[in-house]
Design brief:
single chain, 417 residues, alpha/beta, Rossmann fold, 3 domains, 8-stranded mixed β-sheet, 13 strands, 40% helix, ATP binding
Length: 417
């Protein structure tokens, strides 16, 4: 199966000639290397770039170990640049090079050098590190396959395809397997030997079992509000393991740095401020999340919410969890106050969306329940309910846009109109 990754390929092509170092980040095995070394290379060749003007070094390859020395790598690249025509320098997993920032900065002043690098860990390739490139670092964040990318190749009945996507996620290699056992074994294996091992080794963490249990707790509570103190209590009462909240916070940061999980902060919509008491965590890939729990805890409502969150992030939007106060007069005239949650507060520049994820809306009572929090917001921004049991999109009588999940995931609903 060939996934074209058009969305990211277009970003790479648009960045050509911008005078910056193109830094391609993302979770391991999401297709960064294939995108750069195959798809982008083929596009350059089709545009007339000579193959000897494309310099590629895979730094994970043991045969290229010598190039992990910065001076050796510089010498090799310089030896390949033999004229004044443009050269495309592509370095895979550049964080394996000592002092890689100095290596990349060395090419900022060379007009015929276009530099593209990949990295799998935000500790090495975060926006803070990119500032080391003298303000000329251009980050392109790659995610696992979106449902649209997945379905474009896999095809078939949409509901069946989405169920498989919920279960096995969007890592490109997983879609190549036909047997359920092969998919599950692959996901279990790379979780233990690639993702978990990578986080432990890169951060010199000694408590492997504590990290493993933390990931299980986060996977089990995916999309639910929590905090480090509550997680510490779970360790004490359920796991019978004593880990301090500060340590848990550090472990979570390590998982975020590895692009394994993503944090959604809680935002007080009316008060216009962030609330630090709780946060939510979503997994970068549903297949890895399910492998953590050995494919035993598969709730379609939570899977749908995680997939929607990932789709919003993939499109470069800033995503928070919203809280809004509601006041209702109860018996005896007493005013009751409660906080209602908005699944996603989505920001792009000066625009905003309020989005609810609803797996099914079988009754008007359920519709009323899902839109209750949205109706408490009166700032004029668009309000949307993404529904898993709808097959068409349109506004309801309250001015809320009801969007089919398939329209949303397949890019058929322009939510920013």
């Amino acid at each position: 199966m060939l996934f074209e990754r058009k969305y990211y390929l277009d970003q790479l092509l648009r960045a050509d000639g911008n005078g910056m170092i193109k830094v391609i980040t993302g979770i391991r095995r999401c297709g960064k290397s294939y995108l750069l070394f195959n798809l982008f290379r083929e596009k350059l060749l089709a545009r007339g770039v000579s193959s000897d003007h494309i310099i590629q070094v895979n730094l994970e390859d043991r045969r290229n170990k010598k190039f992990r020395d910065p001076d050796c790598l510089l010498q090799y690249i310089d030896s390949q640049m033999k004229d004044s025509c443009k050269y495309y320098i592509m370095l895979d997993e550049v964080q394996l090079v000592k002092e890689f920032e100095d290596v990349l900065n060395s090419y900022l002043g060379i007009p015929n050098a276009e530099v593209y690098v990949t990295g799998s860990n935000a500790k090495f390739l975060s926006k803070d590190v990119i500032t080391e490139f003298r303000g000329r670092g251009w980050e392109i964040r790659i995610h696992p396959l979106s449902f649209s990318e997945y379905y474009e190749v896999v095809g078939g009945e949409k509901a069946e395809a989405l169920e498989l996507y919920y279960k096995y996620g969007g890592l490109p290699a997983v879609a190549q397997f036909e047997r359920v056992e092969d998919r599950q074994n692959y996901l279990r294996e790379i979780y233990e030997t690639v993702y978990l091992k990578d986080v432990l080794e890169r951060n010199n963490l000694k408590n492997a079992e504590g990290m493993r249990e933390l990931v299980r707790i986060l996977a089990s509570g995916m999309g639910s509000g929590t905090n480090v103190r509550r997680i510490a209590n779970t360790f004490n009462t359920v796991v019978a393991m004593d880990i301090a909240p500060a340590t848990i916070g550090r472990y979570i940061k390590c998982l975020e740095d590895a692009f394994f999980i993503n944090e959604a902060l809680r935002y007080d919509v009316k008060g216009r401020k962030y609330i630090g008491t709780e946060t939510k965590y979503y997994f970068e890939d549903m297949g890895i999340r399910n492998a953590v729990l050995d494919f035993r805890q598969l709730e379609p409502t939570h899977a749908m919410e995680n997939v929607i969150y990932n789709e919003l992030c993939r499109n470069g939007f800033s995503v928070d969890v919203g809280l809004v106060e509601s006041f209702k007069r109860g018996t005896g005239g007493r005013v009751l106050r409660r906080n209602l949650e908005i699944d996603f507060v989505v920001n792009r520049h000066d625009e905003r969306l309020y989005i609810q994820s609803a797996y099914a809306l079988p009754t008007m009572e359920k519709v009323a329940q899902e839109q209750a929090s949205l109706l408490q917001v009166d700032d004029g921004f668009r309000k949307i309910i993404v529904a898993g049991d709808r097959y068409s999109s349109g506004y309801n009588e309250n001015g809320i846009l009801m969007v089919s999940l398939y329209d949303f995931l397949l890019g058929r609903a322009d939510i920013w109109k």
